[in-house]
Amino acid sequence: MSDVFQRLRESVSALELAITEGVLLEHRPADRVLAARTERIAREPLRIERTPDTLACMVFERSSRRYAVPLTSLSEVGALGPVAHVPGVPDAFLGVAARRGRVVSIIDLPRLFGTAAAAAAKPQWLIMVASREVVCGVGADELHDVIDVQRDALARAMPTFPALLQRHTLGVLEDRTVVLNLSQLLEDRTLRVEERHA
Amino acid sequence: MSGDDEAFLLLCATLREEAAEQVERIGAVLLEVERGADGARARALLDEAFRQAHNLKGASGSLGFALTARLAHALETALGEIRGLPPKKARSLFDLLHQGLGLVQKTLDSAPGQDAPLEVTRVINQLASSSASLRPGRPSAIPTVPKPPPPAEAPAPTEPPRPAEPTPAPTTPAPAQPPVSHSPLAHEPTAAQHALAPRAVPPPELAVVEELPDAGTILTHKALLAPAMPPRATEESLRVSTKKLGALMAQVGELLAARLRTDQRLSELKAILSFEEDQLDRRSALRTSLHDYDHSARDPFVERLMQAVGESTEGHKELTRRLRELVRAFEADALQSTILSGELQEDIRRIQTFPLASVLDTLPRAVRNMAREVGRDAELDVQGGEIELDKKVLEALKDPLYHLLRNAVDHGIEAPNERANAGKAPRATLRLKAEHRGDSIAITLSDDGPGVDLDAVRQRALERGLLNERTAPQAGEQQLLELLFSSGFTTRRKVGALSGRGVGLDAVRANIEELHGSISLQSRRGHGTTVTITLPLTIYVVHALIIRVGGYELAIPISSVHRIMRVHPSEVLDVEQSSAVLVDGRPIALIPLATLLGVADDKKRDSERMGVIVIGVGEQRCAIAVDEIVGDQTVLAKNLEPPLIRIPNVAGATIRGDGSVLLTLNPIDLLRRASSLGPSQAASMAGGASRRPKPRVLLVDDSFTTRALERSVLEAAGFAVVAVADAEAALVELDAEWYDAVVSDVSMPGMNGFDLCATIRKTDRLRSLPVVLVTSLASDADRRRGLEAGADAYVAKQEFDHEMLVAKLNELLGRAA
User: Is pTM beyond 0.80 here?
Assistant: First the structure.
């Protein structure tokens, strides 16, 4: 047994030497794999973060409806450029636009929630949201302030809200602003357009 | 999951990737040796295979994949043994080696505490005993591996053991094995072999005993620590995820768009320069005119004015000069930027392309193994491996190719005895050939089997309700072959080891279509079957036709466009309530693109010629009417981002220089949509019979009166008439416009009616155009001459009856009176 440990010690020393001296270990896959692993493992422990009591949100308006979204879910806000309409997609998709070399879809929130009946004018602003799976934009007519929302000041989503809105509402503020979990909303499976011909 | 776990799983993934490459390499080597590589070459190949197996053993053992290490060791030992044997003698061992290679990935997926799958143990034991039998008197080198104790905390089923917490190695090392010595037969090369392989690698020397966690004691060869083959000159390489490359490509797209905007700025700058030059010319002219002013009459004001104009002109000159330099510099920078961004784009695209061989090279071994599995003997001949394709396409191509090969091996070729009875070589040959075809590549897989049994397909289609008693006998070969792509369709009554479940060609077609490609099947009874896959060379750059319809501007890949036409509404045929146009003499369904896309179509097509593009994939064709054909452009293809994952009729998009997005149409979807439309929809779309304009008649007569008379008769009968005074003018008109019929006089100045008729008959496009000769030449000889010239009807003016002329025309045009 002691022999085994002795050999292990020698291997570790050799490995350490190889790593510090930058010796190429290509011809010894085991060492190379272990060296790579060691490098991978050696990292700082993750810090546990506490949920803050306030939520920094940006408030915007679309079709006279006010929404607020946490800043953490936004990747970019800017003027909305040309939008290409896409035939065969639901009305809530205003179309697609180019953003940072990608072709992203632009969503009209009131139409998505079914709370706006008629087609509104083209939005002026584009609020880009990037989540794990989705990079997508939301159209806005006006951008308002960035506010700190006290979590305990948020009223719950009303039971009369459409199901989709209810699922992704973090709360409602007293000035009728609906605080949305936008990144979660855009990842909602029901939003996916994945049609196939029969 | 902790970072430690993540790192370990990452290493495992790396090991699996590396193992897959090693397995492929060993497999390819075995196949080449088996096919008869000569002595020195065979030995060099086997040395390399041996080294790969050894590396696999080391890497898997170091990460705790004990079973993989055992298997790799067995492979290594067997490879060591066959190095000196003739392929014939080692045939059984080759089979075992292939089986063993096929199990490597399986062992890498095994959980540490699990028992070794029986088949793996069986193959390891068989490899050991076969290897031992080649070395009489020597014990097997397979290590005995104690079953690892159950881990304290049960890991996830797929998680292999952790090297950081190794299972104690067995206290009793396996008996050391004496150095491997190969038989004299194997190791005494002939003189010829000496000449061919002066640097043949000496047999590896057993020297070091390694103890691997969980793997027990494994013997390794000292000589193998140094490469047995001359070291390959390798470039430094780095694995980069395709996601990162995709992001880079997206940024390059952005760069190209920015560069196009720079062009726009340059144009604006040039316009300013031009304006300034114009201003300078004006000032210079003013200055000259002031200079020419009578010197004697100059007063101080004029002098000051001249001086001011002179200074201002000089200032303008300087401004214009500097502006010109700026434009020149800007042009040079823009050009360089164009070149560099173009090269960058191409380089990134090339990074993502790989030779087809990276997929095809693995297939011969797969075919060999598949054939053995079902009692067939087959070899695969591969051509065109050097053609490069996008990595994404290559990855997605693997499964369809494997599927097609399984089909070919299982029921595309006969068993050796059946082949012998049919006068064929016992070993079937499958041929896989890749070749360029314009913007696409075609991959054809053909076999020399019996071909598709169309009667069996017909029978099965009847049973499954795909055909009925009426349609089954009428179904043609292509229609029957097309049925093989139906979901769940198989002619096999029993599910075989490789195929017969009916989950096949439809899935293959779906995969190919995902890549914007197409697949078709041809078969010849008794001679074999050929499957043709057509794929775009790259899915990143598309040469597209830009069209406009219903307020949309859209792109369609030119590779799917067979013809671009301008069609007059009168050329639209009504075939069984469907609109159609003639393309190469064949009627092709005509459908407005707006209808296919489900967008508003307010374009009126009653009078003007409309843009029509004929699209086709495989044997399918469809003509689609568009509002405007804008032009063609090479575009950088991009996918739409989620949540728009798959939109009918839309393949993707591209970003234009002005930052706008252009959607790219999916021709396969369009053809499908066209097939799903009912005749009523189809008829209403292209105008239909009800909105069809009047038949157009070209009237040719040198007499004004006759022209007026016949025109009134024909117009009253519902014809649209264009009248000309001579045959030459008639030919010009026929060349420029489409007519449904010609009514012509015979005696005319210049070319007469007979010659006009003969000329029409000689012109391909007009060959079938109905011609009626109306003439005062009423003799039988004249009549005969007219008919010989190709006239469809001959009406004598003496017996002129307008009803008869109208009836004749209606008859010729298939028009109800």
Answer: no
